[in-house]
Amino acid sequence: MPYAQTCLPDEFSTHPPIYKFNEIVLNMYHLDSLGIPNALLQKAFNKIFIPLSMLTATSMNHIRYNRSLKYHKIIFGNSVGKYSLNKSSFPDELSLNESEFWQAYRTWLVIIDMISDLRVAASWKAHHSRMITDTSFSTWFQAWHEHDRLLRSQFVLTPFIVLPDSMEYHTQFEQCRNDQAYKETMAVLVSSWKAPASSSTTLASLCFTPYDNLAPHPFWTTLCVHCGI
Predict the structure, then answer these.
(1) What is the DSSP letter of 56?
(2) What secondary structure letter does DSSP report for 33?
(3) Which of 10, 11, 14, 53 could share a disulfide with 90, CB 3.0–4.6 Å?
(4) Model-level pTM greater than 0.70?
């Protein structure tokens, strides 16, 4: 088989070096030398929403090495007919913890720098600054996360400048805070409703356990039916 013969390992024993000092001496090592996977840049440049769950270090390694990924066909835009990453291969974005959120957000800002001009990117960095300087961020993490997700999804549909001091920005965040507070309150109520259930059952069993009507009781012979004496 000709193909098998061309792949024999011993054919490379006399191959010249591929890494030459004079060619690579000026290259610098970068912590992010792998960069953003092309599959993510494809989504970004085609204005397809990228959930933060795709931007964690673990997810990007899965993308780089094509580990159990699913794709779907693009049906609009300049890349119609091509395939793009399917979000079903990744966790739900709102399942990220706070540490994963910040890890992914750093990657999101890198992507924003690549696909936006300086003023558009600066507005997203102002939003990032507003989040990271909030001393109550951990308390309201779910609210901030949902607020940010809504901003990013709307930005993909109709691009806009993020204005952290605008009324719309504050109104949406307050709605997200109210949603988080409601969910947390309901969770406490549900747990409190469940807690007394077992104790009330025990109390009922103690209060209403029938007595043995065949056992002798002193009051049968000592109490008068008329006066109770």
Answers:
(1) S
(2) T
(3) 53
(4) no
- pLDDT of 55 reads 95
- DSSP symbol at 95: G
| Spacing of C-alpha 86 from chain mean position | 15
How far apart, in whole angstroms, are the C-alpha atoms of residue 204 and residue 25? 83
Helix (H/G/I), strand (E/B), else coil: 96: coil
Question: Which tokens is 128 given?
Answer: 């990032």
Residue from 33, 131, 139, 43 nearest 84 by CA: 43
> What average pLDDT does the chain have?
80
Nearest to 55 by CA among 100, 115, 95: 100
**pLDDT for residue 226 is more than 50:** no
**Helix 98-115 and helix 38-45: axis angle, to 10°?**
60
DSSP-H helix ranges across 97-166: 98-115, 118-132, 141-157
Measured CA to CA, the distance from residue 194 to residue 190 in angstroms comes to 6
Residue type, 149: R
Dist. CA 11–CA 167, nearest whole Å:
69
Query: Is the separation of the CB atoms in 57 and 128 below 8 Å?
Result: no
Residues 7-36: tens digit of each pLDDT: 455 577 788 888 888 888 887 765 554 588
